[in-house]
Amino acid sequence: MTVLVTGSSGHLGEALVRALKAQRREVMGCDLLPGAFTQLVGSITDRDFVRRCMRGVATVLHTATLHKPHLATHSCQDFVDVNISGTLTLLEEAAAAGVAAFVYTSTTSVFGEALVPPPGEPAAWVTEDVTPVPKNIYGVTKAFAEDLCRLFARNHSLRTIVLRTSRFFPEEDDDRRVREAYAGANVKANEFLHRRVDIEDVVSAHLLAVRHAPSAGFARYIISATTPFTRDDTAQLRCDAPQVVRRYVPDYEAEYARRGWTMMPGIDRVYVNDKARAELGWQPRHDFRALIARLKADEDIESPLAREVGSKGYHGRVFDDGPYPVE
User: Fold this and answer.
1) Using an 8 Å Cβ cutoff, are 2 and 27 in contact?
2) Which runs of E-coded beta strand occur in 21-158?
3) Domain chopping of the chain, boundaries
4) CA torsion sign, 66 to 308 to 275 to 229?
5) pTM for the full model?
6) Span 302-322, pLDDT tens digits
7) The domain 2-309 belongs to what CATH superfamily?
8) Model confidence over 43-72: pLDDT tens digits?
C-alpha cells in the first residue's frame, strides 16, 4: 500500500520521499509546487484533488503547511485555509478512504509564549505536558490542526500521531540580531543544545511514527535533538549557559575558539524528547556532542541527507533585509 507525503517539494517532504524510496516503499508526493519528488501537483484545500490523492493510500505523512516565514506575505485567512481547512480535508478524505495511519508534522512554535519565562526565572523545561500559548497565526493554526487530528482519532478511529518538530531548516535565522551576532553554522550548533534537530532524525521519527500509529490511537511527541542538560540546570542556563555547557561537553570550547565561534550567554528554553525516545524507540543520532566530534574531525555539522535536500527557501522572491520579512 502507498504512503502519501504532502508537501513533497519542501524540506521535510522531499527528505521523507527520499527515505521511503531508499526503503523501496511505494510512495506518492503531493504539493502545490512541482518538484523532483512530487507526482501529484495541487492544493490540499481542493477536496477533489485530495480525494484523488487518497486512492490506494495506507499512510499519510502530512508535512504541507504555511510556515512562520510566511507571516508577512500571507494573510491570516491563508493560514486558516491551508493549515486548518487543508488538514481537515486531508483527515476527512483519509478517514473515508480507510487510511490506517496519519502522521501530522506540527511545530514547537505551538508553545509560543510558554517558551520564554519572565526575566530572572529558570529556562523553560518544555515537555509535552506544557500547555501551548500560541503567539501568532502560525502557532494558532498548527495547534488547531493538532486538535483536529485528535478529534479524528477519537471519532473516526483514524490512528494519528502528531510530531512537534523543532528547527531543522538550513536557512539563516529570521532574527536580525542573531544574524549579526553569530555566523550561521555557529547559531545552528548552539541550537542543538536546546531547540534544533537534524532532518535525518526528523525523518526517522516520522517513519517510527508510521510503525506505531496503528496501536497508538492518538499521541503527541516533541522531536528535537537530545539535550545534555537536566531540569536541575535550568536556573543556571538562563544566566550562564557557557558554564553549564562546559560541564557536560568540555571540549566544545577549543573547537569554538578554533573557528571564532561564541556560545550564547543564556538559554531560555530546552525542548525535551524523552517521551519520543521512550515510546517510539526513537534514537536521534545528531546532538551537540556529535556535532563537536564532527567539528574536531573537520567534518560538516549537517547530515548527508540535510546536505542532499539543501536549502529550499520559503518565498519566490528576495527581500532587502534578511531571508524572511518577519521583523
Assistant:
1) yes
2) 27-31, 40-41, 57-62, 101-107, 124-126
3) 2-309
4) negative
5) 0.94
6) 999 999 998 776 656 666 665
7) NAD(P)-binding Rossmann-like Domain (3.40.50.720)
8) 999 999 999 999 999 999 999 998 887 788
